[in-house]
Amino acid sequence: DTFPQKIGLHQTHHNLSHATDHQGQLEFAKYDLFLSEQIAYFLERLRSYSEGDGNLLDNTIVLFGSGASTTHNSRNLPHLIAGGRNMGLKHGSYWRKDGEQLSNLYLSILHSLGIPVESFSDSTGRIEEAFFTYPSV
Questions:
Q1: Bridge-partner residues for 123, per DSSP?
Q2: If you ran DSSP here, which 8-state letter would residue 89 be given?
Q3: Between the chain's N and C termini, which has fewer beta carbons within 10 Å?
């Protein structure tokens, strides 16, 4: 929770995520930019290593989620799914569905990996949209 302070910001992650004052929101934007730059660097590094019939990113699923919410629930939290081209993920989509459980995303990732668990936490089912390819089990 103190990571933002380690990069020169003045509040903890939790306090920044609830900031309503101008300075707090500016610091949270700086922190968000820093995290976005780090994930971009990580993804580029994964892509730079050849592996099998692609690169390391093609053979890895990376989930980058945001803890930016005004409440303490898992609604309306943006997530980025990267990589996994050789693991059943299709790319180039933006998806939003109000009321969808975040745990359904996790369940869907498991199913795309061929792990046929029935549920994950409070999931209600896997996401049947066009960006997952599910193997026959």
A1: none
A2: B
A3: C
